[in-house]
Amino acid sequence: MKHLFAKLAAILAVCMLLNASPAQASSATEAALAADPVAEKRLTKLSEELRCLVCQNQNIADSNAELAQDLRREIRGMIKEGKSDKEIIDFMVARYGDFVLYRPPVQGNTLLLWLGPIALLVFGLATLIAYQRRRAERVAAEDKPLSADEAGRAEALLKELDNK
Amino acid sequence: MNRYYWILGGFAALVALLAVGLNLNPRDVPSPLVGKPAPAFTLSQLAEPDKSLSPKDMQGKVWLFNVWASWCVSCRQEHPILVEFSKKVDVPLIGLNYKEVRGDGGFDMSKMPADEEKKLAWQRANRWLSEHGNPYKLTVMDLDGRVGIDYGVYGVPETYVIDKSGVIRMKHTGPITPEVLAKRIMPLLAELNK
What we know:
The structure holds 2 protein chains of 2 kinds.
Chain A (H helix, E strand, L loop, with lengths): L1 H28 L7 H12 L17 H15 L4 H12 L14 H32 L5 H16 L1
Helix pairs in contact in A: 2-3
Chain B lengths: L1 H22 L19 E2 L7 E2 L9 E6 L4 H16 L4 E6 L15 H19 L5 E5 L3 H5 L7 E5 L5 E6 L4 H15 L2
């Protein structure tokens, strides 16, 4: 067991290292850009919203893929030109499609994505309520006081037990 | 008993859904550029660096626009297919050499002057084409990848089919396979050239 933990810890450490190094590499090559902190903040915010298409589960703020670097350069250029956030996002969507957005827009083909979980929740709740109701009915139905006939039989059975 | 069939059915449906999902290609991102005019550019030609090319020079022709680079491994895979295509089919194939030097990853770009990058890019691209054959009517050089961004390039090789009026009609990401060529590209070219 101890051995396993040691292994896990080692793997975790390696992962953290791997994670850390790209950030350092990119900060070295992009050192000059940090000159304007306000623009840099906007860049970070924007690029966190945008997916890197090379390594699809990273945004372009985190990714050190070539393309992500290029796109950060483009965004930086657009910020310098005084473009609005919407203009910059539109620039990306026009080239890479909605897929580039980490938060998919609510529209026809994404309705299932947005409403699916809510629909599942409603379905689950409805099933649960229906089940509970049916169960309550069943319990109520079975919980009737014994009829005279049944009471007599129960009495007889109990007596039989006592006699044994 | 009845309800267990429900659960089993639900589980089977979930498995089917996941099976379909796993078999989709996550790289196959639909391009928003299909149906839109090919983004404009003016880039130097590989064969004659003093000359440039713009998409509007191709107006009136159906053409293929293929993104490649000598560092791109999958480009090697599709290259023989392109060479074959160029011999058989009378549709101009234009190459976009994408970040020949910068994309390689083996150079420290902060230490490379622009003219040296240019020289190296031309050298490498020319060498690659003389080694593997040149299927391109001509190739234009996108050293910094800006034109690539305009075309939404994210995984070289990529191929665009552009019609006579300069509208992108199809985009294929990744190497062209004989199937893609036969089933998707050739029929589309025939239709556009009608």
